[in-house]
Every structure is written in structure tokens, then in C-alpha cells.
Amino acid sequence: MHPREGWSEGGIRRRPDGEAEAISRRQLLGAGAGIALGALLAGCGSSSGGSGGSAAGGSAGGSTAAAIPLPRPNNPVKWPIYADNKPIASGLAPERGATLQLYNWVAYINEAVIKNFCRKYGCRYQLTTFNTMSEAMAKLGTGELKFDVFFPTIDVLGQLVESKLVRPLNQSYITNISNVWPDYRNPFYDVGWQYTTPYSIYTTGMAWRKDKVDLQPSWNMPWEGAKYKGKVAVLDDYREGISLALLRAGNLNVNTTDTAQIQAAGRALSQLATLTNVRIDNNDYTDVPTGKTWIHHAWSGDMASSYQYLPKGTPVDVLGYWFPADKKGPVANDLMVNLSGGANPVLAHLFINYMLDVSNALENYSYVGYMQPLTAVTAPRLIAEKLLPPQLSSTVVLPSYFREGVEELQLPESANLVWESTWNSFSKGL
Which CATH superfamily does the domain covering 202-329+407-427 fall into? Predict the structure, then answer.
């Protein structure tokens, strides 16, 4: 799941029934991204032809039903460029009188940045939002929505390429790629950045109230919180939750397909529930500052803006966020892609380029709290520009995390079902 799943317009989390979320939210499992992706491929047709040949690298740990490779750091994938889905020509003028169509997660972009772009290029814009990647992919698969720029996660990139829903980039329009961390100019999930540029990047770690908890932060921290019963929470996310238990056990393979390992992680989570009456929610950004939760499995981007929810008079110093010093923790990033069905491909390229400008990225960060992997966006700069309190500098993601962290990537369908069923067995009744 994604940190923005369950958000509504205005940044209020909502339950699946649409009601405002006051305490916690239960993730709806069962439909899963796999169903949406299968429908997408069925609706759009899967083609292995074209000038690019088959994707390099094969499948790591199994393959999807459509035999699309699963990119891994040790098994990078260079996607094909198809003869009937090539990049646009170089040197084209931006479309005139256009309305740029953007498709993004709820509350995940600063509209002030979009408006500034439109003023610069003399266009209008329409921002359409989604709450889950399954929802977004299912709607794109109908072929009825014609967006220019989409903000997907890594795990759906293969389906987008295979279905020819995403247009290869003409890199000559995206000169600001020079601002991006070098690793993201040749990422393992899109060798040569043929289809993608990075959007946001974040880590998963532990958040806690320093004035309430006297434990050293670690992956074991929630299990050590028996004396804080009722004040411990883990993220409402089957991948993140099971990964937490795996990391606690010293298992860095957060994409394991070993049923015994997955089920052992589930038992550890059940033990956690017995010890602490653990809650499952994604309210790390509000519940830690308000003191409802003292130990919370958390996302860095949420905690970067959590100080805004502190009660009046409560110092920022009470907030802590930990990511391991050896960098062996979950790291993730989202993407920006140019959709092939969009009517404004030149503006789409220029918008992606605009979002990779440092000043625009900083303005975007001031709203979303999730940073972009740009070399000039550093903890000292965020602090100097008063976008981040120095006490929360640990929420800043460093370039080395992409190489040294662990990523929760797409699983073979059979293994994913084991992860989901194990999580459901733990979470039901909590």
C-alpha cells in the first residue's frame, strides 16, 4: 500500500466507506492490485512485438500471469521500446490553448506549483486524483481516461509498458534530470530511464514520543513496549507490517516468497498484539504528536510534517523518527510518467522537467512533506528554508538509501496471496 491510500481531498484520511477517519482505517484486501493489473492487460491487450524485443533481465523470484519481469536491484530491467509506441520528436513547441491533464494520488502535489507551470506555458490544468493504485490502474485500463502525466508506483511499471499505456520519454525535453541523484538516472526498475523519472522518495521507520518512551529505537521497539500497552501502533499495510516483523528477525528479504518466513512474521505480529494491544492505523502523522500513540511504525514523509499537529506549547523535541544507521530499512519512491493517450505530450514532458527543478521541488515539499531525490534538496537546506525542524532531520532520505536500503517490490501472485492471508489472520479482530 502507499502512504496516500485512504486520503481524501484536503488531506483527511477516509475509511473505505467514505466516512471521515477519526481513529484508524482497515485496509481492504482481497481485490488487490493483481486483479486491477490483470484487467488492465486484458482490456488493452499484451504485445511482445516491436523494435525493443523482450525486456532484459527475466523474472526474479517468479513471474506475473502475463510473464512480465519483476525488476530487482540485482536483476535490473530494460524495458522494450515498441515500434508503435515511440518517443515524440525533439524540438516540438508546447501545445497551445491546452489543458494539461494530471492523474495523481490525493493530497500529493502542491497545486501552487501546477499553477505556476501553467502561467509559464500559457495552459490550463485539470488535476484528477485517486486513492489506491488498483483504482488508478483499473480506470486507465478502460482506455476512457486520457491523462498526460501519471504518478505510479514501481510495481505497476511493467504493466504500463506492456500495455503501451505509458509513452517512452524523449529525454531532450527533461534537462533537469541533471538535478536528480545519479542512481535515479539509471534505476534498476527502468534501465536508462526510458519511461520514468522519480517523483517522491521516503523511508519506513519508527516514530515515538521521546518524553513518554525510554527505549532505544529499533525494529524491536514495538515488542519492547509492553509497559506502554495501548500506546503502540503499526502501519495498516500488509507489506509494511510483515516487513517490520521480518526486519525484527534480521531478515532483510522483504520480498521473500518463503511461506515459513512469512507465517513466522505473522506469528510475531500476533505476539505483539498480545503484548501491547497494538493498533493498526496510518495516523502516525497525527497520533504521535497528539500523544494518542507513543510508539508508531511510520513513514518519513508523514513524520516530516507531524510537528504541525503538536498541541500548542508542546516542543518539537518530543518527536522522534528513526531509520537504521546501516540504512537496512524500507525505502520507496514514486514515479512520473507520460501517458500515451494524453493529448499534450510536449507539455507533459515540460511538466515533468518542471517538477525536477529544485525551487519547484522545495515548494512542492512544503505541502506534501515527501521529498524528491534531487542532489540540492538536503537536510541543511530544508532546515535553512524553514521547511523542516532540525529535530526531524532524520526524516530526510539520503542518496545512499536507494543502493543500501531494502525495497518492497512487486511479488509473484502466489507469494502475494500468502502475504495477504497472513496479514488478514493477524489483523482480523484488532
Answer: Periplasmic binding protein-like II (3.40.190.10)
